[in-house]
Amino acid sequence: MAGGRGSRMGGVDKGLQAFRGSTMVQHVLARLQPQVGTLLINANQNLARYAQLGWPVRADDIAGFAGPLAGLQVGLRHCATPYLALVPCDSPCLPPDLVERLAAALDEHGADLASVVTGTDATRQSQSVFCLLKVGLRAQLEAYLQQGGRRLESWFATLNAVTVHFDDETAFSNINTLEQLQALDAAPARGLHEILAGIADYDADAVPVALARRIIAEFGEPVAEQELLPILDALGRVLAEDIVSPIDVPAHDNSAMDGYALRSADLAAGGAVLQVVGSAYAGHPYGGEVEAGQCVRIMTGAVLPAACDTVIAQENVALADGRVSIAAGAVAAGENRRFRGEDLAAGSLALKRGKRLRPADIGLLASLGVGQVAVWRRLRVAFFSTGDELRSLGEALPEGCVYDSNRYTLHCMLERLGCELLDMGVVKDDRLLLENALRRAAESADVVITSGGVSVGAADYTKQLAASLGQCAFWSLTMRPGRPLAFGSIESGGRRALLFGLPGNPVAVMVSFYFFARQALLRLMGEHAADLPLVRVRAAQAIAKRPGRTEYQRGIVSPDGDGQLQVALTGAQGSGILSSMAAANCIVVLHEEQAAVRVGDMVEVLLFDGLV
Q1: In the prediction, which pLDDT does 176 show?
Q2: Domains of the chain: residue spans and CATH
Q3: Residues with Cβ < 8 Å from 501, sequence gap 6 or more?
C-alpha cells in the first residue's frame, strides 16, 4: 500500500519519502520480499516512479483515494496465490517474521484472516492494515465495498478473523508527518537488547535456526561510505545509486536482420515488386527518401529509413534488375523492426541501487555511455582461528596438532563476496591474547569472524569475551553441524563491529557461514540480495532424522534414470570431515520439524554451483 495523497507529507507519497539512504517503500519491499512469493504495489499517483522499483503497480479501481480496502480489492483481483499479505509503505521496520506468524495463526485457528495487534491489555492497539487473508474473501469484500463500506476494522468484524500479538510496537510505527519521519531517520538503529526484548520465551542456549536468522537480519547497519569508480573497476561491487538511462536504447528504430526495409502499405494488395533505391548499414543510414513502391537494402542494426516500418529477410525475396519480388504473406507489417527505446527509454530505471554489478551490467552501463558509477565501499572483515592445536601452513606439525584449514576456507568465501579482508592468523587459547585480538579486529573492521572457541570447553573464551566487550545475542543453535555459534557485537576504541563466532569444525564453519553470515554480510555491503534458493529433489537414499533441530548434510545431486534430479549423501557426515564438503555439490537442508526421510521423498537442497 504505497501511500495516498501525501497531504501531510509535503505533497509527496509516503512511500517515496527519503529514509536511511533510499525510500520508505524500498525498505518495506526489502523486508517483505524474503517472506512472500511475489509483490504488487498499490498506488494512485506517481505510478511510473513506483514501477521503477521493478514490481507490478496497480491503482485503485475505486476513484477518489478510497482507502486501504480499495487497495486490498486490487490485490485480491490480481493475486494468483491462495493468500494475500497486506502492509503499508509507512512502516519501514516491519518484522522479518510477520507473514510467517500470521500464517501460523490462520492455520492454528482455521481462520480466514489474521491481523496484528500490539500493546498491553490496557494499551491494546489494532494494526489492522498489517494482515494476511485468504484470496477467497474477494467476493465478500466486493459486496462490502458496493454497499459503501470503507473501514478495515468494520469489514474484519464480519469475518472469521484472528489477531496476532507482537511485542515490538516500534516495528509497526505509522509515520504520518515529515517530523515523525525525520525523527525516525535520525534515531540510532536498534540494539540487540531491544531486538531480544521483543521475543517471547527467548533461550540463548537453544535458539531455532529461523529465529537466529531473524535476529541477525535485524541487527547492524549497512556501510554508508561511497566510492566513484570507472565501470571496469566496479565489477562485483554494489551500486550505491540508481542508474537512470540518459538515452533511448536503441537510439533509433532499426533493423533486426539483414534484408530490405519497406513501407507496409506497399503490401496491402498481397505480394509486391519494389525498386531498391539504396542501402543502409549500421552506422551509415540511408539519407534519401523512400517513396511508394521503393525499398532499401538494410543490414542488422542499421537505422530504419523514416518512411519504412517493416523489414523482410533477404532470403525471403527474389532480386533481379534492381527490384525485389515479395510473395503474398512473406512478411507481416511491422515485422523485424526494433523500436527506439525498446530496450531502455531515456529517463527509465536501468539498474537499481543495491545491485551487485555483473559483466552484463557493465556492458549495459557502457551502452548507456555511463563511464563511472557510485558504489558502496567494500565491507571490512577481520577473521582469525583460535586454538593451541592449530598450526599454519609451513610450520611443523607436532603430535596432537592440526593444520588450520578454517582460515583458508573463510578467506575464499569472503573473497567471493568481495569483502576487504584482514587475516589475523591463529590466536592461542589464552584469554588475554584473544581479548587483544578481538579489540584490534573491532577497531579496524566492520565485521569480525572467528572460528573455534565458542563451545563449552574450559578454554573456549569467545562467548565470554563477546559478552564483556559488547553484546552476545546467542551462542547455541538447534542445528547440526554448527550448534555452538555465537552472534553479537564487540566494541573497542569507540568502534563497534558485528561478531560471528563460528564453530571450530571445518564443515560446521562452512555451513554456518553460508546459512547465517553470508546473507548478513551482503546486507551490510548494501546489496539487496534474496535468501539463497533451495531446490526440491528426490532422496536417493533414506536419511535418519528426528524432529527438533535443523540438519545440514552434504550431498551429490545427479539425474536418475528418468532424467529427474535426485540426491545422495557423500558418506560419513561428521562435522570434522572436510572431504565430505569437497566431494559434495550441494547441502541437503532438513528442517527442524522434519522427521526421517525415506527413499523417494522430496527434500530441499542448496546447490553449490555459483556459490562456492
Answers
A1: 67
A2: 14-187 (3.90.550.10), 226-248+343-376 (3.90.105.10), 254-338 (2.170.190.11), 380-524 (3.40.980.10), 535-607 (2.40.340.10)
A3: 450, 453, 454, 462, 463, 466, 475, 485, 486, 487
